[in-house]
Amino acid sequence: MILGRPGRPLVGIDIGASAMRFAVFSGSAGDRTIVRPTPAVPRREDIAGAFAQLAAMGKSGCRAGLSRAPGLDARGRIADWPSRPRWRGFDLAAAIRSAGIAATIADVDDAVATVAGEYLLGGFAPDRRIAAISLGTGLAIGLIIDGIVQATGDGAEGLAHRALGLGDRRCRCGRIGCVQAAFADPRLDDDGFAAIVALLRDRLRDAYGVTAFVFAGGRAQRWRGTIARIDGCTLSPAPFWSATLGAAALACAGRDLRSVALDEALRDRLRRRRAAT
Ligand SMILES: [Zn+2]
User: Fold this and answer.
1) How far is the CA of 61 from the centre of ligand 1 (A)?
2) 250 in a domain, yes or no?
3) Residue 188: predicted pLDDT
4) 224 lies in which domain range?
5) 175 C-alpha to center of ligand 1: Å?
6) How far is the CA of 234 from the centre of ligand 1 (A)?
7) How far is the CA of 171 from the centre of ligand 1 (A)?
8) Cβ distance 77 to 89 under 8 Å?
9) Considering the domain boundaries, does residue 128 fall inside one?
10) Which of 25, 34, 75, 108 lies most in the core, judged by the most C-beta atoms within 10 Å?
């Protein structure tokens, strides 16, 4: 299956702690994207308005993917979001539905969305075992093994909050020295960052056989030189957009991406998209 052909655009939403991204990706026909800063207090009309603008470009009845940093409860409300506490209880699913678009929304944790996007952007061989590490306001780690996106736990139960045994900082998840706490240390310098990445890389290699480590997210830019020097690690070709793309692709194809590829024009264009907008 080729995703993102002009007649079958990909529609994605990414709700992160710093930015909300809305996109229609459509092969050689071009893309339409909207980026809004994530407000401290959520407003239904912000989300519905942006989605309505984009979804009109997709076909009626399209499938749209939602990547989100917070966990949702069974009814689609935000269960907990330490980075944006005033969003707790906000009905995200209802906000998207209120755009009035006849779209089926498939929602995934941002770790899952990011690794799917990186897999499609990177053109990896189907048997590669890849970890995508998204460094934004928080941290997300997703895995794809032999072309199948893995369930790695939502929010505080995900890989980003496994205890690494590094440092003594307590994370918002309550654990001391988890991966996110280690990466969030404001005293972190290049050598410290490289040491954490090397330890995380070795743990994921031992536990899951991961051999390729891709860094996405806005904060990855800060460490781009360091990442390039660490064996097995690369910076995403589209660090701000892989989660939006991945969510859109998962909505259309499901988690088995072995026989899925991106439209070449779309892939080439996204691979040049290093900027935030
Ligand atoms: Zn944690």
Assistant:
1) 38
2) no
3) 92
4) 113-235
5) 5
6) 24
7) 4
8) yes
9) yes
10) 25
Q: Is residue 164 part of a domain?
A: yes
Q: How close is the Cα of 141 to the center of ligand 1, in Å?
A: 12
> What was the pLDDT predicted at 177?
85
Task: Determine the Cα–Cα distance for residues 113 and 99; give it in Å rounded to an integer.
Answer: 22
Residues 152, 229, single domain; the answer is yes
Q: Are residues 33 and 91 in the same domain?
A: yes
Helix or strand (DSSP H, E) at 190 = helix 190-208
Q: How far is the CA of 159 from the centre of ligand 1 (A)?
A: 9
User: What distance in angstroms lies between residue 167's CA and the mean position of ligand 1's atoms?
Assistant: 12
Q: How far is the CA of 208 from the centre of ligand 1 (A)?
A: 20
Q: What CATH number should be reported for the domain holding residue 136?
A: 3.30.420.40
Nearest alpha-carbon partner for 43 in 82, 94, 83, 81: 94
pLDDT tens digit string along 92-143? 999 998 988 777 889 999 999 999 999 999 988 888 899 999 999 889 999 9
Rounded to the nearest angstrom, the distance between the alpha carbon of 70 and the centre of ligand 1 is 13
C-alpha to C-alpha distance for 143 and 127, rounded to whole angstroms: 13
Between the CA of 182 and the centroid of ligand 1 the distance, in Å, is 9
Q: Which long-range contacts (CB under 8 A, 24 or more apart) does 258-261 make?
A: 258/126, 258/146, 258/147, 258/148, 259/1, 260/1, 260/2, 260/3, 260/120, 261/1, 261/2, 261/3, 261/120
Q: Is residue 55 part of a domain?
A: yes
Instruction: Measure 87 CA to ligand 1 centroid, in angstroms.
Output: 19
Q: Report CA(69)–ligand 1 centroid distance (Å).
A: 14
Last residue of a domain, one of 109, 132, 150: 109
Rounded distance from Cα 172 to ligand 1 centre (Å): 6
**Could you read off the pLDDT of 64-76 as tens digits, one per residue?**
999 999 988 989 9
| Residue (of 237, 247, 224, 219) closest to 142 by Cα position | 247
Cα 174 from chain centroid? 23
Ligand 1 centroid to residue 179 C-alpha, Å: 7
